[in-house]
Write a structure and sequence with these properties.
This is Maturase. By secondary structure, the chain is an all-alpha fold. It has 9 helices and no strands. The chain has one domain. Helices cover 71% and strands 0% of the residues. It is elongated, with a radius of gyration of 16 Å.
Length: 129
Protein backbone atom coordinates (compact mmCIF):
# COMPACT_ATOMS: atom_id res chain seq x y z
CA UNK A 1 0.00 0.00 0.00
CA UNK A 2 2.73 2.48 0.96
CA UNK A 3 4.58 1.86 -2.29
CA UNK A 4 1.49 2.78 -4.34
CA UNK A 5 0.91 5.90 -2.23
CA UNK A 6 4.56 6.88 -2.68
CA UNK A 7 4.09 6.50 -6.43
CA UNK A 8 0.95 8.67 -6.51
CA UNK A 9 2.45 11.34 -4.22
CA UNK A 10 5.85 11.46 -5.91
CA UNK A 11 6.70 15.18 -6.11
CA UNK A 12 8.73 14.64 -9.30
CA UNK A 13 5.69 13.28 -11.13
CA UNK A 14 4.10 16.24 -12.88
CA UNK A 15 0.44 15.88 -11.99
CA UNK A 16 -2.07 18.48 -10.88
CA UNK A 17 -3.02 18.36 -7.21
CA UNK A 18 -6.68 17.72 -8.10
CA UNK A 19 -5.74 14.70 -10.20
CA UNK A 20 -3.35 13.46 -7.52
CA UNK A 21 -6.06 13.70 -4.84
CA UNK A 22 -8.58 12.00 -7.13
CA UNK A 23 -6.22 9.06 -7.73
CA UNK A 24 -5.42 8.84 -4.01
CA UNK A 25 -9.10 8.86 -3.03
CA UNK A 26 -9.89 6.16 -5.56
CA UNK A 27 -7.06 3.92 -4.35
CA UNK A 28 -7.58 4.51 -0.63
CA UNK A 29 -11.36 4.10 -0.60
CA UNK A 30 -11.00 0.78 -2.42
CA UNK A 31 -8.34 -0.29 0.05
CA UNK A 32 -10.52 0.68 3.03
CA UNK A 33 -13.47 -1.23 1.59
CA UNK A 34 -11.38 -4.37 1.30
CA UNK A 35 -9.73 -4.22 4.73
CA UNK A 36 -12.64 -2.75 6.73
CA UNK A 37 -13.03 -5.88 8.83
CA UNK A 38 -9.57 -5.54 10.38
CA UNK A 39 -9.02 -3.57 13.59
CA UNK A 40 -6.75 -0.93 12.12
CA UNK A 41 -7.99 2.47 13.29
CA UNK A 42 -4.67 3.58 14.80
CA UNK A 43 -2.72 2.42 11.76
CA UNK A 44 -5.13 4.33 9.53
CA UNK A 45 -4.62 7.49 11.61
CA UNK A 46 -0.84 7.25 11.17
CA UNK A 47 -1.26 6.49 7.46
CA UNK A 48 -3.58 9.45 6.99
CA UNK A 49 -1.08 11.79 8.69
CA UNK A 50 1.71 10.42 6.51
CA UNK A 51 -0.37 10.89 3.33
CA UNK A 52 -1.08 14.52 4.22
CA UNK A 53 2.64 15.06 4.79
CA UNK A 54 3.41 13.52 1.39
CA UNK A 55 0.86 15.87 -0.21
CA UNK A 56 2.41 18.84 1.59
CA UNK A 57 5.74 17.70 0.14
CA UNK A 58 4.27 17.72 -3.37
CA UNK A 59 2.83 21.18 -2.88
CA UNK A 60 6.03 22.56 -1.33
CA UNK A 61 8.06 21.11 -4.22
CA UNK A 62 5.80 22.90 -6.72
CA UNK A 63 6.65 26.21 -5.06
CA UNK A 64 10.23 26.14 -6.27
CA UNK A 65 11.19 29.73 -5.45
CA UNK A 66 11.24 31.53 -2.11
CA UNK A 67 9.00 34.22 -3.54
CA UNK A 68 6.37 31.68 -4.60
CA UNK A 69 6.47 29.91 -1.23
CA UNK A 70 6.03 33.22 0.57
CA UNK A 71 3.13 34.31 -1.65
CA UNK A 72 1.31 30.98 -1.33
CA UNK A 73 1.79 30.79 2.44
CA UNK A 74 0.47 34.34 2.82
CA UNK A 75 -2.57 33.48 0.70
CA UNK A 76 -3.18 30.50 3.00
CA UNK A 77 -3.36 32.79 6.02
CA UNK A 78 0.14 32.71 7.52
CA UNK A 79 1.48 35.93 9.02
CA UNK A 80 4.20 37.90 7.22
CA UNK A 81 6.89 36.83 9.70
CA UNK A 82 6.00 33.14 9.63
CA UNK A 83 5.66 33.10 5.84
CA UNK A 84 9.11 34.65 5.36
CA UNK A 85 10.62 32.38 7.99
CA UNK A 86 9.21 29.26 6.37
CA UNK A 87 9.83 30.26 2.74
CA UNK A 88 13.49 31.07 3.49
CA UNK A 89 14.21 27.91 5.43
CA UNK A 90 17.35 25.93 4.70
CA UNK A 91 15.64 22.70 5.63
CA UNK A 92 14.90 20.17 2.94
CA UNK A 93 11.40 19.79 1.57
CA UNK A 94 10.55 16.69 3.64
CA UNK A 95 11.71 18.29 6.87
CA UNK A 96 9.93 21.56 6.07
CA UNK A 97 6.60 19.75 5.76
CA UNK A 98 6.79 18.93 9.48
CA UNK A 99 7.04 22.58 10.65
CA UNK A 100 4.17 24.12 12.65
CA UNK A 101 3.74 26.90 10.08
CA UNK A 102 3.13 24.44 7.25
CA UNK A 103 0.77 22.43 9.46
CA UNK A 104 -1.20 25.60 10.17
CA UNK A 105 -1.39 26.62 6.51
CA UNK A 106 -1.94 23.14 5.07
CA UNK A 107 -3.84 21.41 7.85
CA UNK A 108 -6.58 18.81 7.83
CA UNK A 109 -9.27 21.36 6.92
CA UNK A 110 -7.28 22.50 3.87
CA UNK A 111 -7.00 18.96 2.50
CA UNK A 112 -10.68 18.23 3.15
CA UNK A 113 -11.52 21.40 1.26
CA UNK A 114 -9.33 20.17 -1.62
CA UNK A 115 -11.32 16.92 -1.71
CA UNK A 116 -9.09 14.46 0.16
CA UNK A 117 -11.28 11.90 1.91
CA UNK A 118 -10.50 10.81 5.45
CA UNK A 119 -9.46 7.18 5.92
CA UNK A 120 -10.58 7.11 9.55
CA UNK A 121 -14.03 8.57 8.81
CA UNK A 122 -14.57 6.11 5.96
CA UNK A 123 -13.36 3.24 8.16
CA UNK A 124 -15.80 4.24 10.92
CA UNK A 125 -18.72 4.44 8.48
CA UNK A 126 -17.99 1.01 7.02
CA UNK A 127 -17.45 -0.56 10.46
CA UNK A 128 -20.83 0.74 11.70
CA UNK A 129 -22.73 -0.52 8.67
Amino acid sequence: MKEKIRFITNPVWSLSMDERIRKLNQYLMGWIGYFALADAKKILQFTEEWIRRRLRLCLWSQWKRVRTGYRELRSLGLSHVHAIETANTRKGAWRTTKTPQIHKALGVAYWQQQGLKSLVQRYSVIRQA
